[in-house]
Design goal:
By secondary structure, the chain is α/β, with parallel strands linked by helices. The protein has 15 helices and 14 strands. It has two domains: 211 residues, Glycogen Phosphorylase B (Rossmann fold), CATH 3.40.50.2000; 183 residues, Glycogen Phosphorylase B (Rossmann fold, 3-Layer(aba) Sandwich), CATH 3.40.50. The strands form two sheets. It has an eight-stranded mixed beta sheet with strand order 3-4-2-1-5-6-7-8, with helices on both faces. The two termini are 17 Å apart.
């Protein structure tokens, strides 16, 4: 039997380095286990520091790295038409596409390339929506979004992005939403036929720990001066406003000011706000640690050494940070929004209340953080409940099979 070929498209901007990159890596790992059935080509667009296309192969996985345009500085975000056309020509020279092939796109920014694939090949197209654009672009203000969305004369940057996503959905054979709320938006706002739209949660393979991992964890604790009596909060993610990082650090400072001296928070991640945050909280560097970006093999050690994850993001779908914490049995505090619909307050997490303006309630965040510090039984119960939920619903194998089995 001929192997099914999947072309999965990624690019090099920061958002793809984190959540989307993790999603694609999980799919690649599952494809490796199914080498008798699948051949997967991972296409990475806008790779810096290379001058020509690089193609490598190992077993049933091919890695195709495509460079930035010569004049381009930094990482690729948008893929303009001419650059997309050049990418398509490169792909045509390397592969003969057939109707049994599948292209898997992961960003509205890949619109022109998706369109070219649709117009000039007979392949099937999957489009995964990793983020709710209106929530990001309009800062969760639905009324403002829907007003501009219904204005036919509106041709703003925000409007163009959302229209590109709608067009991607219309051209695709299958649209994957990572949450029920995103699926509702695609059906009710984008007006995409229901038979094309599927809700498939992200999945993750459970990580095992070995003795060397625990030795490294102890080394990290020593380097950060974490003592046995210290309680450690952990944040993992990009340092951008939508993740709630400003509210989190403001709340943590309030807790310190109220006499909680044996608490620390480790901020794992990078982003445009990092330098300003490091400067602002320099006087609290004994309690607030910024690690910057870390590779996955190191991040997992921080999940294991922490006592509670706090992730007050206002814009996720099926967060890999959430799934990692669930799989590591690390209790969580998250925002009380539909982006964490999988979790139940006081059962598999604690949820931070929102204000009438759908902003994080600082008093609620403080209360939830203090509850975790004081109640070990609560932490254990929440962690076990979340882990059971992960085992039942969030494996990478289930995600892979659901994504590709019906197309």
């Amino acid at each position: 039997m001929q192997k099914r070929r999947i072309f999965i498209v990624n690019q090099t901007d920061d958002s793809h380095r984190y959540g989307v990159g993790k999603y694609i890596n999980e799919i690649i790992a599952e494809a490796k286990l199914k080498k008798n059935d699948f051949e997967l080509i991972s296409i990475e667009i806008g790779v810096p520091d290379i001058l020509s296309t690089i193609r490598t192969e190992k077993d049933n996985i091919s890695y195709l790295q495509i460079p930035c345009p010569v004049s381009y500085k930094g990482t690729i975000k948008n893929l303009p038409y001419k650059y997309s056309r050049a990418i398509f020509i490169i792909l045509q020279e390397l592969y003969l596409f057939t109707e049994t092939d599948t292209f898997h796109f992961n960003s509205n920014m890949q619109h022109f390339l998706l369109t070219l694939i649709k117009e000039h090949t007979s392949t099937k197209i999957i489009y995964t929506i990793h983020v709710s654009l209106w929530k990001v672009l309009y800062n969760n203000d639905f009324n403002k979004f829907i007003s501009e969305f219904n204005d036919l004369d509106n041709d703003s940057f925000f409007s163009k992005n959302i229209k590109a996503e709608i067009k991607n959905c219309e051209l695709s054979d299958r649209i994957i939403c990572l949450s029920e709320s995103m699926k509702r938006d695609v059906l009710e706002i984008y007006k995409i036929p229901c038979q094309k739209v599927f809700k498939i949660s992200n999945g993750i393979k459970e990580q095992k720990f070995i003795k060397e991992d625990f030795d490294k964890i102890n080394e990290i604790k020593d380097s950060l001066k974490i003592n046995k009596e210290d309680f450690v909060f952990l944040y993992v993610g990009r340092l951008i406003a939508q993740k709630g990082i400003i509210h989190l650090l403001n709340t943590f400072k309030v807790i310190l000011d109220k006499g909680y001296k044996n608490v620390k928070i480790i901020i794992v991640g990078d982003g445009p706000m990092k330098n300003s945050l490091v400067k602002e909280y320099k006087s609290l560097k004994q309690n607030i640690v910024f690690t910057g970006y870390l590779p996955a093999k190191l991040v997992k050690l921080y999940y294991k050494l922490a006592d509670t994850l706090i992730f007050p993001s206002l814009n996720e779908q099926s967060s890999y940070v959430m799934l990692e914490a669930m799989s590591y049995k690390l209790p969580m505090i998250v925002s009380n929004t539909d982006i964490f619909e999988m979790l139940e307050d006081k059962y598999s997490c604690l949820k931070i209340d929102l204000t009438e303006k759908t902003e994080l309630d600082i008093d609620s965040m403080e209360q939830k953080m203090k509850a975790m510090v004081h109640d070990e039984e609560l932490r254990t119960r929440i962690a076990e409940s979340a882990y059971s939920l992960y085992v039942q619903n969030c494996s990478s194998e289930a995600m892979f099979n659901s994504t590709y089995s019906a197309i």
